[in-house]
Amino acid sequence: MNFDELGLGPDVLKAVAETGYTEPTPIQAKAIPQVLAGRDVLGIAQTGTGKTASFTLPMIDLLSRGRARARMPRSLILEPTRELAAQVAENFETYGKYSKLSMALLIGGVSFGDQEKKLDRGVDVLIATPGRLLDHCGRGKVLLTGVQILVIDEADRMLDMGFIPDIEEICKKIPFTRQTLFFSATMAPEITRLTDTFLQNPERIEVARPSTTSSNIAQYLVKTSRDNKRDVLRELIQKDNVKNAIIFCNRKRDITVVHKALEKSGLSVGSLHGDLDQSVRTRTLDGFRSGEIRLLVASDVAARGLDIPDVSHVFNFDVPSHAEDYVHRIGRTGRAGKSGTTYMLATREDGKYLTAIEKIIGSSIPVYDEKKSDAAPADEKPEKAASEAADAPADLTVASSETSDAADKPASDEKPARARRSRGGRGRSRKQADDAAPTEEDAAPAVSTAPEERAAEETKEEQPRRSSSRSRAPRERGGRGRDRDDDDGPVLGLGDHVPAFMLRAVKLPKRRPETEEDETADDVSSDMDAAESITSDSEVEEA
Questions:
Q1: What percent of the chain has pLDDT over 70?
Q2: Residues 128 and 76: beta-carbon distance below 8 Å
Q3: Less crowded by CB within 10 Å, the N or C end of the chain?
Q4: What is the pLDDT of residue 480?
Q5: Residue 376 and residue 370 in contact, taking contact as beta carbons nearer than 8 Å
């Protein structure tokens, strides 16, 4: 099938012919006739299959009949990122150069003044990101009541970036009697709910199973560790025939670290993520397309829809946390029928994400042959150490094992003995210490015996001491655990040096009588105390 058979106008066909395309892709062949017929379309196709041209070509043909009005665009295309919006704008300029259609691009990082001037003149095609479009609506600079065709591109990416509430608000400002074109690479349950809300009896076009990878992309899994990732990445770039490559990272700070590491190695490298200024992002992409920049370290901003035909390699420096992002990342290579190669650097912590990726693509990713790389992953270092130990001389191995056995056993046996002696020796009087000290006869066999036997004998000798020390331990630690009957007993734990204040008698408080007998006993004791005090007073007077 050729483009001539799809029902497009002569101006559009002429522009397509000048680009060099003669046969439409499957998604284009099925979607373009339905769009020209005015039906809602739900297009599901993997990345790199030509979804953008499947709605730009028929839109140019439909909008060629009519006139634009100030601040009231006739069509609206919503894109999740600035790069995708700019790319769609380029496609409109390429395919609509023979049509008298005006276009405005509303994205962040550009001044509002220039964008408002275009809106005031009136535009046929408005390409925008949701956030910037709502800003213009809030300023009263754009009215969406004249939109005839609404395109929601990369809907699954919109969902991931949290733009669904913004899209719902935008759709409320658009007339209900509109044509809606909904394109996505995957169909999550939330996306299905949106299609039921926004589309009216759509024509579902699915040219590939959701989340499938292209067959002309060679995929490899490289097992490594977190600390060795940068070294493995450098060696893969040096050993493989890398014409240019995109290196994906999960976090923006990792992008900076990898960019600096590759730059120190003398490689031509650039970085791309959402925190960069729009002028820097545009300049970096232009340099990568022209070949001035060989390696592009990027976040998932570059994973969707970027049309760079000659990317030879894709490196997943980090395993994506969302399995569907893997499909979009590796889709940056192997485009337009060309072959590509991808590597994914995975650690042991990435097992859960790796399982989800292999489940969604329906196949396992082959492990990269480590023999092709001199850099051994950190996970295999224990095996390498074991092999080196096997190649070592036998005498050295035996000697080291005997030494380690002789050093470990006495240490492990003597340590509890020392601990028991230190615990049991506290608070003992000198006499007890002298009685517990070993005699010469007891010490003589210990010198001549082996370390194991000596440790065993010490353990046996310490057994009674340990039990006695345990029984005394509560009393040695400030009297904890003692019975009340032991209050009048001797003070333990201080040896012969007992402070004088601890030997001073303490008068106990008077106990309340509970019975009559106790009360009588208390009265008698009080009378005896009074008599003793009178006697002592009289003795003092006589003296």
A1: 67
A2: yes
A3: C
A4: 45
A5: yes
Q: Which two tokens stand for residue 131?
A: 């956030």
pLDDT (average), residues 286-310? 84
CB 333 within 8 A of CB 314: yes
Q: What's the pLDDT score for residue 192?
A: 85
Backbone φ/ψ region at 520: left (φ over 0), alpha (ψ -120 to 50), beta: alpha
Domains along the sequence of the chain with CATH? 3-206 (3.40.50.300), 217-386 (3.40.50.300)
The residue type at 134: L
What pLDDT is recorded for position 399?
33
- pLDDT over threshold 90, residue 376: no
Closest CA to 104 of 136, 64, 81, 80: 136
What are the helix (H) ranges across 179-273?
A: 189-198, 229-239, 252-264
Crossing angle of helices 164-172 and 189-198, rounded to 10°: 0
Nearest-angstrom CA–CA distance, 431 and 429: 5
Burial of residue 146 (number of CB atoms within 10 Å: 0-12, 13-18, 19+)? middle
Q: CA 80, CA 163: separation in Å to the nearest integer?
A: 8
**Strand order across the beta sheet in which 269-272 lies:** 217-223, 340-346, 313-316, 245-248, 295-298, 269-272
Mean pLDDT, rounded, for 275-287:
86
What is the b/e burial string over 451-470, where b = at least 16 CB atoms within 10 angstroms of the residue's CB?
Answer: eeebbeebeeebeebbeebe
Q: Which residue has the higher pLDDT, 334 or 129?
A: 129
What are 409-419's pLDDT values in tens digits?
444 444 444 44
Cα 72 to Cα 95: distance, rounded to the nearest angstrom? 23
| Proportion of the chain above pLDDT 90, given as a percent | 38
Amino acid at 313: H
Q: Which two tokens stand for residue 213?
A: 């990878």
Residue with tokens 């590597």: 343
Given a cut of 50, whether residue 403 has pLDDT beyond it is no
- Is 0.70 surpassed by the pTM of this model? no
